[in-house]
Amino acid sequence: MKQWYIILLGLFIAACTQHQNENAAKPDVSRIQEGPILQADDATKQFLIDITNASWYSAKLAYVATLMSHDQNIIKSAQAIRKDYTRIKDKAKIVSIPYHVEVPYFLTTEQNDSVNMLQNLDSLSFDKKFISMIRNNNDNIIMRCDNFQKGIKRSDDLQQLIDFCRSTVAANPLSKP
Torsion angle of alpha carbons 105, 107, 109, 115, nearest 10°? Predict the structure, then answer.
């Protein structure tokens, strides 16, 4: 009789262990909360990448200007550009999250070459070239916003990013000739 109790106890323990293993293998999806995954078309992906990259480029140019320029107005403008365009970059990164778009954390080779070229200019040529490069990049940002916005209703987060880009470029003291 004692053997039957041992066998029954063994079967009971085996059944409990098997039940625990089955439950452990199943994920508890009730605790997983993810935000909505938004579908990004190719144009949206490219826009987010391009805006992040262009704003990063302006911020880098402005950083160089704070180190290289001797004109206090250029230095003040460069400090504002660096702060404002870093905010564009950060906003673009935030907007890209629900679209699962990996935005760049670096400059392109061409942009790096331009920054290096700017760093190697003499002080007489520096300010003029810096202003020219910022204006060209501002035109690039506005063009990308215009091209992205044509004919398509965009989500609120993308529209806010476009509006923020436009207002930041418009407020840039170096945008105007």
Answer: -150
Write out the residue range of the structural domain in which residue 107 sits: 42-171
Q: Is 24 domain-assigned?
A: no
Q: What is the rounded distance in angstroms from the CA atom of residue 93 to the CA atom of residue 85?
A: 12
Residue-by-residue pLDDT tens, the chain, 177 positions = 556 556 655 555 666 555 454 444 444 433 333 455 556 678 889 999 999 999 999 999 999 999 999 999 999 999 999 999 999 999 999 999 988 888 888 899 999 999 999 999 998 899 999 999 999 999 999 999 999 877 777 788 999 999 999 999 999 988 776
- Split into its structural domains, the chain has a count of 1
